[in-house]
Amino acid sequence: MLFKVRMDDELELALLVPKYVQQNYAIIAAEQDYLNQWLNWPKDTKSYDDLNKFAVQSIKEFAEGKSMTCAIIYKGAAVGAGGFNSITPSLKKAPIGYWLGSQFQGKGIMTRVVKFLIQYGFDELGLEKIETAHALGNEPSQKIIKAAGFIQEGIIKNAENLHGKIVDHVVYGICK
């Protein structure tokens, strides 16, 4: 295992190795409609191979210090993913991205993951700012972000084409 960190008694973060790719793909395949509400990429994940290609690229980028995408391991099984989508060393900042299977929501998992990633980013990666954004109206994500201590920095109009619907993004940041 290249990278694996235990957050607490229930949660770990680990790079997307085949075991976790398989577990996460099962969630993505079963929950396409749910995940597509707020995310563009699930519709393009049509097979295990699609997700595995992303995982291989993610591990390469982690080794190069360009990103850090991890499986979220809850009680021994992958239940989603989270991490830094890209890392900009020259600016000492990175955006956080995440997703979680619907049956695992409401347990405080993602709030704990995001808080851990913030601390890890500041302490281990030397970041000075962490950013995130969500589509306007994504209240579950908004609750996680605010609980983790992010401050709203603004709204970007027409930020994304989400399956044919143009949506605005609410942008947040947190500084060291």
Write the layout of secondary structure elements.
Elements: E1 4-6, E2 11-15, H1 18-30, H2 32-36, H3 48-63, E3 68-74, E4 77-84, E5 93-100, H4 109-123, E6 129-135, H5 139-147, E7 151-162, E8 165-175
Description of the structure:
Helix 1 packs across helix 3. By secondary structure, the protein is of the alpha+beta class. It has an eight-stranded mixed sheet with strand order 1-2-3-4-5-6-8-7, sandwiched between helices. It has one domain (4-128): Gcn5-related N-acetyltransferase (GNAT) (Aminopeptidase, 3-Layer(aba) Sandwich). The chain starts with a strand and ends with a strand. It has five helices and eight strands; from the N terminus they run ββαααβββαβαββ.
Give keywords.
176 residues, alpha+beta, Aminopeptidase, eight-stranded mixed beta sheet, 35% strand, globular
